[in-house]
Amino acid sequence: MLKTLIAHLKGAFPAPTVSAHCDGPCGVYDPASARVTAEAVLSMTQKILALDTSGVAYQNTLSRYIAIKEEQAQKTKEELLILWTDYFKPTHLEQFPDLHDTFWKAAKLCSACKVEVSEQHAKELMDAVEKIHKMFWQTKGRDVKWELAKPA
Q1: What is the crossing angle of helices 32-50 and 99-115, to 10°?
Q2: What is the pLDDT of residue 95?
Q3: How many Cβ atoms are within 10 Å of 94's Cβ, its own excluded?
Q4: DSSP category for residue 57
Q5: What's the pLDDT tens digit per position in 80-120?
Q6: Quick one: which of 90, 79, 94 has its CA closest to 36?
Q7: Average pLDDT of span 16-24
């Protein structure tokens, strides 16, 4: 009985056809979150390298900085992968032929930053996220300035 009623209602009030160019509504995607987390990776890397190794607090502080660095590197990777797989489409490859290589290398840098304490790799990650930021906003026809929370 209920199935018949629902079928009758669907026939009388059909749902309109809808489409979307990405998995979420416009405005959901933004590379800013990847910038914030990549900045944390760089900051924690610099703090680790600057730590005073004398004193009892060293091991505790070091382990906390490492945990934060690794967590933020993973978050950066997740944010980049969401942009790569959910926002960017095949048509963007025409505009950016190196799109896949850029994202792949950025994801690899996230992994490197998790397992190493390398200021060079952390800075390279920031450069990759900046490039992705520029690519993203170019697809929207906007010039959004790259701004860091902490000046370099």
Answers
A1: 30
A2: 95
A3: 8
A4: H
A5: 999 999 999 999 999 999 999 999 999 999 999 999 999 99
A6: 79
A7: 54
| Residue indicated by tokens 């005073």 | 52
Average pLDDT of span 27-55: 93
Residue 10, pLDDT score: 74
Say what angle helices 57-82 and 32-50 make with each other, to 10 degrees. Answer: 160
Q: Which CATH number is correct for 28-139, 2.40.10.10, 1.20.120.400, 2.60.40.10, 1.10.357.10? A: 1.20.120.400
Which two tokens mark 114? 């998790």
Which residues have CB under 8 Å from 41's CB, separation 6+?
69, 72, 73, 76, 110, 113, 122, 125
Res 51: pLDDT: 96
Where along the chain do its domains lie? Answer: 28-139
Which residues fall within 8 angstroms of residue 94, CB to CB, at 6 or more apart? none
Q: Structure tokens of 125?
A: 């990650």
Q: Which two tokens stand for residue 121?
A: 């790799």
